[in-house]
Amino acid sequence: MIILVLNCGSSSIKFKLYAMKEEIEIASGIVEKIGAEDAIFKYKNHHAIDQKEILPISSHGMGLKYILNRLKDSQYGVIASEDEIVAVGHRVVHGGEKFNASILINAEVIAEIEKCIPLAPLHNPPNLTGIKECMKLMKNAKQVAVFDTAFHQTLPVYAYIYPLPYALYRQDRVRRYGFHGTSHRYIAQECSKMLGKPLEETKIITCHLGNGSSIAAVQHGKSIDTTMGYTPLEGIMMGTRSGSIDPAIVLYMMREKKMSVSEVDDLLNKRSGFLGVSELSNDLRDVTIAAKEHHELSKLSLELCSYQLKKYVGSYMAAMNGADAVVFSGGVGENTEEIRELSMSSMEHLGIHLDHHRNLTDMKKTRMISTDDSQVKVFVIFTNEEIMIARDTFELIEP
Q: Fewest CB within 10 angstroms: 115, 139, 188, 336, which?
């Protein structure tokens, strides 16, 4: 069975094509800068073909047509016709309280996703565009929505309610939703295998760290707390996002600095985090290099992020009455040994003993980076959200 996995962003489409249930990736790629004359199309297949083109792609619909044409190209393609694609699994960022699992898409589901647009105005609209375009281009394929928020619908009430007037939740559903759920779910499942324990018997702290970052407490396979909240702005500092701050700072900026709502929004989402503190870059590779060269603000930003990580890990160990493992994943978690070193050092009192040599070796491998006798194991696990979307799609099509 051939399944296409799509992640439609505001100006991009990431895709992977799988043969299921064998879980063989047969093609993948990305369309970037949709709407520009110099859009970028990258494509590779299982025959080691690796291509990059610069061309005008005016819309998501045009981008999807280009992807399908390449997938069935006589020279570089991997399928004879789009009719071979039995189903399409779509990443959808926000499912609100309506969806606690992946679901086959119909008109009612589309309407519910549209209702969630105010909760994710930058993400749900392009997700919906991808769904609607696929329904036009692949009329015989079933469409499946896999929600970033679904995994966190198991949070207990006391973990997702904010200490605001309850009417805000009752009327407007202002609450903690959490994000990166597909990644946290994958990481927890893989970690349980490495621990040699059933997922239902584990307590795992999953750290998805990238340009956007979140941490989750996964107890017995279910998310019981997570750092991102009503929006992806809450929690740990990120590439350009501030993470959690004193909310009165927003009032100060609006009252004393005369900043508008859009200006504050821009500052917190696009000019803070590593970019704001280091005054250099939102890219951890740049910040890490600069820190090694004694750039003080870059060094401070690494210390700040690591300190926040340490605090969240400690608090989640308290929430779960201990932990079996801490897992680092995502572009930053997988590749930035300095963050892992700083955040996991001096944690022996909580049963964490980092192996400094393991942390610095086998950088491209999933591995344990704690000592063998560490009570709480520490792992680096390379996340794979796409295969989770493919699995959910396959299970809904072939239960």
A: 139
pLDDT at 392: 97
Per-residue model confidence (pLDDT) at position 10: 87
DSSP per residue over 61-121, as a string? Answer: HHHHHHHHHHHT-TTT-S-S-GGGEEEEEEEES--TTT-SS-EE--HHHHHHHHHTGGGST
**Cα(268)–Cα(259) distance, rounded to whole angstroms?**
12
All residue ranges of the chain with pLDDT < 70 are 399
Domain 2-147 listed as CATH 3.30.420.40: yes
Domain extents in the chain = 2-147, 197-380
Residue 49 has what pLDDT? 86
266 is catalytic: no
pTM of the full structure: 0.94
* The predicted structure's pLDDT at residue 48: 81
Cα first-last separation, the chain: 13
Place of tokens 């941490």: 215
Which pLDDT value is given to residue 309?
98
CA distance 4 to 27: 9
Of 50, 73, 83, 148, catalytic: 148
| Residues in Cβ contact with 208 at an 8 Å cutoff, skipping those fewer than 6 apart | 180, 183, 184, 187, 214, 215, 216, 329, 330, 333, 383
Span 197-380 CATH architecture: 2-Layer Sandwich (3.30)
∠ CA 127-113-240 to the nearest 5 degrees?
Answer: 50
